[in-house]
Design goal:
Shape: elongated
Radius of gyration: 33 Å
Largest sheet: 5 strands, parallel
Oligomer: single chain
Strand content: 5-15%
Low-confidence stretches: 30-35
Helix content: 40-55%
CATH superfamily of the largest domain: P-loop containing nucleotide triphosphate hydrolases
Strand order of the largest sheet: 2-3-4-1-5
Amino acid sequence: MRPRSLDEVLGQDHLTFPGSPLRQLVEARADARTGPSSVMLWGPPGVGKTTLAHVISHAEGRSFVELSAITAGVRDVRQVVETARTEREMNGRTTVLFLDEIHRFTKAQQDALLPAVENRLVVLVAATTENPSFSVIAPLLSRSLLLTLKPLTDEAIRGLLDRAVTDPRGLAGEFALTDDARAMIVRVAGADARRSLTVLEAAAGIARARRETDRDEDADREGATDPGTGPVEVTEDDVAEASAEAVLRYDRDGDQHYDVISAFIKSIRGSDPDAALHYLARMIVAGEDPRFICRRIVISAAEDIGLADPQALTIAVSAHQAVERIGMPEGRIPLAEAVVYLATAPKSPASYRALDEAIADVKAGRAGQVPLHLRDAHYPGAKGLGHGEGYRYSHDWPYGVSPQEYLPDTLTGTTYYRPTANGAESRMADRLDALAALRRGEQA
């Protein structure tokens, strides 16, 4: 069912419209000297990267070679380049090299491609599920046309299924897909065309076996009716049996890893417990390291909630310890409790922002000398230097606050911590004013 032309490609209209760079690349005749541009195809699995590579290769005057970065090495690349040189010199044909999973190539392996791409000995069509900005070397990326493929819409998947049911290359009209069955395949496919066809094929096989079983059973019963010779009906039950659950798009070392955890933290910060639980579920189902999830939850408690709810950090740390001690899958229970608590808690970044401001002052040279009355006076000779002289022991004063200056002279009067009006922190401003008055020697 692989499309043979751009007109058969579904779901990538932003790349296949008339006059698009991709269509120009496909429809232009390959020239031995100039040749078409190399292309970098970036998108999730099952959206048509390999298909587009085959469509590009079918243009007149082109040879097609396919390599996988999982198994190929520099030697394989060099062999393709030498063959491409011969093809161009002897037959005037341009070689299209389709390199799947290019992000798995090392920097040295990608460097080996540069001369051939630069001289247009080959038209490189590279596919990757990882962000090329991070996984492909800049010189190679700058010499390629970057095309971003979008996840397929439900409408595109439905169109693909209907085509596969009737097309001679597919099920050739031998099967009929019920509306419920089609809807279920669309749901479990997860925007993956390859998976939708795999599930359809498996469900069709189950439906055929069911009809044959029914025919055999009816043949043994007197007066039984023939189950029929028309198209075999593929039902929702057949699809359910063919596919128990959808395969989640998630890569623990790639952009999905960072995208999902980013959405998770931002959902907690945005006080949306349902969204936070959704992204937590995606990470758990995908097998994300629970220690990574726990670390991010602890950071979120301190960064986004802070003193607006001091209990948040305690709950986050407790969830971290619970997961370490009981493991998964039971660890999901305290994780859920912590995530809901954090998402619904009042938010304040005031405490860590205060530290960041203090760090910025220190790095800028605004540290100043530690006041003499605060310096250590326990070692011999320290008192002779004036260390500790005039220090006022806080517990000797009312409310446990002594009237004295604690900041270096160069920072006197500086304020770093500015509480918000959220949660428990809303009561902090009055307390800070009272403490400042006591440190100035004023009656609170």
